[in-house]
Automatic annotation (TrEMBL):
It holds the Pfam family DUF6992. It comes from Tautonia plasticadhaerens. InterPro entries: DUF6992. The keyword Isomerase does not apply. The keyword Cell division does not apply. This is YhhN-like protein.
Length: 127
């Protein structure tokens, strides 16, 4: 596989996916409180989705930095929506909703930093 920006991005996303799925598996197995069960469940769902996105990108056509920029801009905007949604969920009274909120906050924060970094890298390559 060539050492290009898309490949590094996809590998990073797949590693995050594996970390999320692994942590969720251990966390759910521990049978914690409702708050933590919902947190780990949400982390696992996000890990699964990130893995599917990464896997499909790995199998697809390679993209240039110029082609990645629009997708990264959109993703960064979505990440901000995830963080806003996390804030709403965290403000709820039920432990399940707050656990989901923390899960979305962790995943959304990582993805915002991840997408922001690759947006910056791609913008530097494009000029």
């Amino acid at each position: 596989m060539p050492d290009d920006i898309q490949h590094r991005l996809v590998v990073g996303l797949l590693l995050w996916s594996l970390a999320s799925l692994g942590a969720a598996t251990v966390g759910l197995y521990a049978r914690p409180s409702e708050f933590w069960r919902s947190f780990w469940f949400m982390s696992g769902i996000w890990g699964l989705i990130d893995g599917l996105i990464g896997w499909s990108a790995l199998l697809g056509e390679p993209g240039t930095a110029a082609k990645l920029l629009p997708a990264l801009r959109i993703n960064a905007g979505l990440d901000l929506l995830y963080l806003a949604s996390a804030g709403v969920l965290l403000s709820r009274k039920g432990p399940m909703l707050r656990g989901f909120g923390l899960g979305v906050l962790v995943q959304g924060s990582f993805l915002l930093a991840f997408d922001g970094y690759y947006w910056w890298r791609c913008a530097g390559l494009v000029g």
